[in-house]
């Protein structure tokens, strides 16, 4: 079966974790890789090393914070847009969209929103509203679309090791979860949950209190499929081994495989 593998990975600093990224690309060989939290200006993006690994790339950097990229194996992503409509004045680099291998792929890094309540949480919800509006337009276009990235939302209590210690966190607030559910209600399929409806799957383990060693994780990295892609989903998973490496990101790459055509 000819499949297309699309992954999302919050790298949490591409300059310091470039060796880990290159090792992952070589070992897992995704056809498309969406990266978040580059934490580097455009000029510091390691395009030479990524091209040497066999990938074309587009990216939108930002010094010290945020930053998103889309990598394509043996191909050049065709950029569609950077930034969400209606947020042209937003200084944060959080959204990048491209056509790759016949699919529209978006790499997104939704605002964290902490502390809440406050302006950062208000920004999170405003950004989410713009994403919901843009996602509706993508569905109306009729093109196959994957929304991939760090959504900074724990969809349900089944997506976290213990919600009690996170009750005040922006990732679990009712408003954050309601936005995510509104997005799904447009017709998107949460690929990991579709593949594993009853299992606890985590994509993020923070650096505190031995949360990685204890598997005290959260699921906040998601790949959402447009209705025409959902029947083509063949597998999904999390490359947990990456999180166990020395000096790892606090996220692990999350991926799907799609049948290229039915």
From TrEMBL:
<feature type="site" description="Important for catalytic activity">
    <location>
        <position position="221"/>
    </location>
</feature>
<feature type="binding site">
    <location>
        <position position="10"/>
    </location>
    <ligand>
        <name>Mg(2+)</name>
    </ligand>
</feature>
<feature type="binding site">
    <location>
        <position position="251"/>
    </location>
    <ligand>
        <name>Mg(2+)</name>
    </ligand>
</feature>
<dbReference type="GO" id="GO:0046872">
    <property type="term" value="F:metal ion binding"/>
</dbReference>
<dbReference type="Pfam" id="PF03372">
    <property type="entry name" value="Exo_endo_phos"/>
</dbReference>
<feature type="active site" description="Proton donor/acceptor">
    <location>
        <position position="150"/>
    </location>
</feature>
<dbReference type="GO" id="GO:0008311">
    <property type="term" value="F:double-stranded DNA 3'-5' DNA exonuclease activity"/>
</dbReference>
<dbReference type="InterPro" id="IPR037493">
    <property type="entry name" value="ExoIII-like"/>
</dbReference>
<feature type="active site">
    <location>
        <position position="109"/>
    </location>
</feature>
<dbReference type="InterPro" id="IPR004808">
    <property type="entry name" value="AP_endonuc_1"/>
</dbReference>
<keyword id="KW-0464">Manganese</keyword>
<protein>
    <submittedName>
        <fullName>Exodeoxyribonuclease-3</fullName>
    </submittedName>
</protein>
<feature type="binding site">
    <location>
        <position position="250"/>
    </location>
    <ligand>
        <name>Mg(2+)</name>
    </ligand>
</feature>
<dbReference type="GO" id="GO:0003677">
    <property type="term" value="F:DNA binding"/>
</dbReference>
<dbReference type="InterPro" id="IPR005135">
    <property type="entry name" value="Endo/exonuclease/phosphatase"/>
</dbReference>
<feature type="binding site">
    <location>
        <position position="37"/>
    </location>
    <ligand>
        <name>Mg(2+)</name>
    </ligand>
</feature>
<feature type="site" description="Transition state stabilizer">
    <location>
        <position position="152"/>
    </location>
</feature>
<dbReference type="GO" id="GO:0004519">
    <property type="term" value="F:endonuclease activity"/>
</dbReference>
<feature type="active site" description="Proton acceptor">
    <location>
        <position position="251"/>
    </location>
</feature>
<keyword id="KW-0378">Hydrolase</keyword>
<dbReference type="InterPro" id="IPR020848">
    <property type="entry name" value="AP_endonuclease_F1_CS"/>
</dbReference>
<keyword id="KW-0479">Metal-binding</keyword>
<comment type="similarity">
    <text>Belongs to the DNA repair enzymes AP/ExoA family.</text>
</comment>
<dbReference type="InterPro" id="IPR036691">
    <property type="entry name" value="Endo/exonu/phosph_ase_sf"/>
</dbReference>
<feature type="binding site">
    <location>
        <position position="150"/>
    </location>
    <ligand>
        <name>Mg(2+)</name>
    </ligand>
</feature>
<feature type="binding site">
    <location>
        <position position="152"/>
    </location>
    <ligand>
        <name>Mg(2+)</name>
    </ligand>
</feature>
<keyword id="KW-0460">Magnesium</keyword>
<dbReference type="GO" id="GO:0006281">
    <property type="term" value="P:DNA repair"/>
</dbReference>
<feature type="domain" description="Endonuclease/exonuclease/phosphatase">
    <location>
        <begin position="7"/>
        <end position="251"/>
    </location>
</feature>
<feature type="site" description="Interaction with DNA substrate">
    <location>
        <position position="251"/>
    </location>
</feature>
């Amino acid at each position: 079966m000819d499949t297309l593998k699309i992954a999302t990975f919050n790298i949490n600093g591409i300059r310091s974790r470039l060796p880990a990224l290159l090792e992952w690309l070589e070992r897992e060989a995704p056809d498309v890789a969406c990266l978040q939290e580059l934490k580097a200006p455009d000029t510091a993006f390691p395009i030479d090393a990524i091209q040497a690994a066999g990938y074309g790339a587009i990216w939108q950097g930002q010094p010290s914070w945020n930053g998103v990229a889309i990598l394509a194996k043996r191909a050049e992503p065709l950029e569609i847009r950077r930034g969400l409509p209606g947020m042209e004045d937003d200084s944060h680099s959080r959204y990048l969209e491209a056509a790759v291998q016949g699919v529209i792929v978006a790499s997104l890094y939704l605002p964290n929103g902490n502390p809440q309540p406050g302006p950062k949480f208000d920004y999170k919800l405003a950004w989410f509203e713009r994403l919901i509006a843009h996602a509706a337009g993508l569905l109306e276009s009729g093109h196959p679309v994957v929304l991939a990235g760090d959504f900074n939302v724990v969809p349900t209590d089944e997506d976290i090791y213990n919600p009690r210690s996170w009750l005040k966190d922006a990732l679990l607030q009712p408003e954050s979860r309601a936005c995510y559910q509104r997005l799904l209600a447009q017709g998107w399929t949460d690929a990991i949950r579709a593949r594993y409806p009853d299992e606890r799957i985590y994509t993020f383990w923070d650096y505190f209190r031995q949360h990685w060693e204890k598997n005290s994780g959260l699921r906040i990295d998601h790949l959402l499929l447009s209705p025409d892609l959902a029947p083509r989903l063949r597998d999904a998973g999390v490359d947990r081994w990456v999180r166990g490496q020395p000096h790892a990101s606090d996220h692990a790459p999350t991926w799907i495989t799609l049948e290229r055509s039915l």
